[in-house]
Each structure stands twice: as structure tokens, then as C-alpha cells.
Q: What sequence folds into this?
């Protein structure tokens, strides 16, 4: 950045200044420029407000069950094929079950872990109403 | 982490589910796309497609999320059947009362709408800086662009957002 000429402005150095991303030398130069340049002072204020607005955005709670649903294999753009496959698999499974009942298959990934995760997050209750959650799943883990 | 190496997708979902969804939501601006993005990110983690570098797990996750998001934006751009509002002019500026603006507050929904109106490359840089809190150097590495480009995108992104919400 060269702020030697009177027409030069600090530009994106202003964001870098707000973010603490300037070297000490750069910072001194921008600070000195701000003292004399009203346009840059105004821009600094404008940018600072936008920065604060974005930083004030709250965390977003994932929809209930989002991660649990991912136990089902996910194939982007091939859902119909996957559904057809599941249908066929269900038919085969029905036949197999009727012939020889098998022990329940091991589930991978661990469902209990995910239920546990939800119980933990749900246990925080509703921030708005300050009410406790309606129901907290009981852990399957011993 | 089980073995000190790559975290499993279950660990990511269990310990960082809210963080991941928040980043995805801020990038995409709506629940449907955020859910799709989260699924795609976990798929990449699950398949071991992303090199894990020991360090900030959330930094690593937000890098994957941002790149997955940008890949998707580019893919949709090649098949423009379902255009994203990349052009700020396509997004109606959120209405905000003058006194609200003067008080220095903006409604989160309005800020989110304005964020969604930014070009995807700017939005990615702004989200990594102001939502995730990564330093410029890490953002540059995540987006594979020079630090100067990061600086300019963050600055212009903020300026555009401020203009829309003015």
C-alpha cells in the first residue's frame, strides 16, 4: 500500500486493520492516513458496522434428526436409484427373513453415539422460552 | 479422536454438528441447501477424501465446507437450470427501518439475506473470516488464493453487504 500521494486511499487495508492483519509499519501508515482522510474514516466506520453485523450472527441449530438420517447411505443426485435399490433389497430381505431368521446386524455407525449427542444438545432446552426440552432420549449405552 | 489421526464423520457429527451446520447455513442461506452441504461434507470426511492436518478441527471442517460449497456453485453455474442469486441485484434488499440502522443493529435474517446476495467467492471469504474467525493466511490456504485476494474479497464483501443494508 502506498499512501504517499494525496489521492491514495487505504481501501482494503481498512478491513485488514480491523482484523489485526497489518504489520506494525502498515498499521502506522494507515492510522496516520486516517487522521487526514475523512473519506477513509467514513469507509472504516461503514466496514466496521458490516463486520460487526456478520460477527453478531448467532449459531444455527441443526434440524432435529439431520445427522441421524445420515445413517442411510447418501448418494448425491442418485436418490431414485438408491430408492429402487432399497426396494429390491427389502424384497430380498423379506424372503430371507421368512426362510431363516437371522440375528440383527451390527449397526455402523454407532446409533447410540448419535442419540447421545442429540440428548446432550437437546438438554440445553429452549433459549427463547427457557423451558426444559419435552423429552430427552435415554442413552442406550450401559 | 480415536487414533489422533483423521476424525471419523461420527465424531464430527457428534462434537461439531452445530458448528458445521452453522457454516453451511451462512454459506448457502437456506436450510435445504445447508443440509445437502452438510451431507456432502460428511461424505467427503467419511470417504477420507480430505487430507486432515492436525490443528484446528473446525478450521479443517470449514475449509472442506467452503470448498464443497464453491464446487457446487460452479457445478450449478455450468448447468444454469437452477441459478443461485449470485448477482446482488437479483436479491431484493431487505427493508430495514431507519432507526434500526441508526441504532447500529441489523436483524440476523436481513444480514443473512444480504450475505446470500454476495458473489460466492466473496461470501466464502467473509464467512471464513467473520463467522469462523480464521486468520487471512488460513483463508488464503483454504481457498487457494493469495492473501491479497482474501483481503480484497473480505473488504469488498463487507462493503457490498453494508450497502445493501443501508
A:
Amino acid at each position: 500500500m502506498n499512501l504517499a500521494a494525496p489521492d491514495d486511499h487505504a481501501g482494503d487495508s481498512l478491513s485488514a486493520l480491523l482484523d489485526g492483519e497489518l504489520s506494525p509499519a502498515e498499521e502506522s501508515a494507515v492510522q496516520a492516513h486516517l487522521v487526514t482522510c475523512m473519506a477513509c474514516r467514513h469507509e472504516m466506520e461503514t466496514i466496521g458496522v458490516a463486520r460487526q453485523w456478520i460477527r453478531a450472527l448467532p449459531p444455527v441449530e441443526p434440524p432435529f434428526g439431520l445427522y441421524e438420517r445420515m445413517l442411510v447411505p447418501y448418494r448425491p443426485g442418485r436418490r431414485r436409484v438408491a430408492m429402487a435399490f432399497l426396494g429390491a433389497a427389502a424384497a430380498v430381505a423379506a424372503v430371507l427373513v421368512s426362510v431363516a431368521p437371522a440375528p440383527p446386524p451390527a449397526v455402523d455407525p454407532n446409533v447410540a453415539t448419535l442419540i447421545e449427542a442429540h440428548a446432550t444438545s437437546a438438554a440445553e432446552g429452549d433459549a427463547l422460552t427457557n423451558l426444559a426440552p419435552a423429552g430427552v432420549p435415554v442413552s442406550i449405552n450401559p | 479422536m480415536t487414533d489422533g489421526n483423521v476424525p471419523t464423520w461420527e465424531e464430527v457429527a457428534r462434537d461439531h454438528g452445530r458448528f458445521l451446520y452453522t457454516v453451511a447455513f451462512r454459506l448457502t442461506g437456506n436450510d435445504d441447501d445447508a443440509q445437502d452441504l452438510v451431507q456432502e461434507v460428511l461424505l467427503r470426511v467419511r470417504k477420507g477424501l480430505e487430507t486432515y492436518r492436525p490443528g484446528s478441527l473446525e478450521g479443517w471442517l470449514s475449509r472442506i465446507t467452503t470448498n464443497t460449497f464453491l464446487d457446487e456453485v460452479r457445478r450449478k453455474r455450468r448447468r444454469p437450470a437452477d441459478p443461485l442469486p449470485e448477482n446482488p441485484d437479483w436479491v431484493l434488499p431487505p427493508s430495514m427501518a431507519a432507526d434500526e440502522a441508526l441504532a447500529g443493529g441489523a436483524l440476523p435474517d436481513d444480514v443473512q439475506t444480504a450475505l446470500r446476495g454476495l458473489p460466492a467467492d466473496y461470501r466464502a471469504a467473509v464467512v471464513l473470516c467473520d463467522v469462523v474467525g480464521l486468520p487471512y493466511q488460513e483463508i488464503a490456504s483454504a481457498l487457494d488464493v493469495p492473501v491479497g485476494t482474501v483481503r480484497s474479497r473480505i473488504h469488498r464483501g463487507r462493503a457490498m453487504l453494508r450497502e445493501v443494508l443501508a
Q: What stands out?
A: The first helix of chain B runs from residue 9 to 28. The domain at 9-80+101-164 of chain B is CATH 1.20.140.160 (Butyryl-CoA Dehydrogenase, subunit A; domain 3).
